[in-house]
Amino acid sequence: MRRTGPTLLRELAIRAHSEPITHALLDDYPPSNTLHRIRHLLVLAGVLPQRTELLDRIEPWLEQLLNDRPHHHTAVVRPFVDFVKAGWPHHVAFVWPHLDGQLRTGRSSVPF
User: Fold this and answer.
1) Coil, strand, or helix at residue 15?
2) What are phi and psi of 6, to 5 degrees?
């Protein structure tokens, strides 16, 4: 289910009464542009610490992608993605803003 910005903010405000707002909490939500924008605002406001967002987004996206796939797909795709991520220095996400476009291209080229 796609959430609008106000709906997601309302859910987070309610959850904030019983648990801290963390990157891990936001990672539990399905990836969406709305979620990425709200996370960015929370980082800018100092609610969340800065992280290598472009690289850290890959894991929740991959979990969602492989969730309904057969084990033999997961056995090939996950090690490959881990190998590729290991080759990207974490500082790249801060230094090269255009990396976001490269990651989108990579995600769109996964054949399922």
Assistant:
1) helix
2) -60, -35
Q: Is 4 left (phi over 0), alpha (psi -120 to 50) or beta?
A: beta
Q: Residue 2: what residue type?
A: R
CA atoms of 15 and 64, how far apart (whole Å): 22
pLDDT digits (tens, 9 = 90+) for 8-41: 999 999 999 999 999 989 988 888 889 989 998 9
One-letter amino acid at 5 equals G
Residue found under tokens 């903010």: 9
Distance of alpha carbon 108 from alpha carbon 24, whole angstroms: 24
Query: At CB < 8 A and 24+ separation, what contacts does 105-109 make?
Result: 107/61
Q: What is the DSSP string of 45-63?
A: TTSS----HHHHTHHHHHH
Whole-model pTM: value is 0.58
> How many of the other CB atoms lie within 10 Å of CB of 81?
18
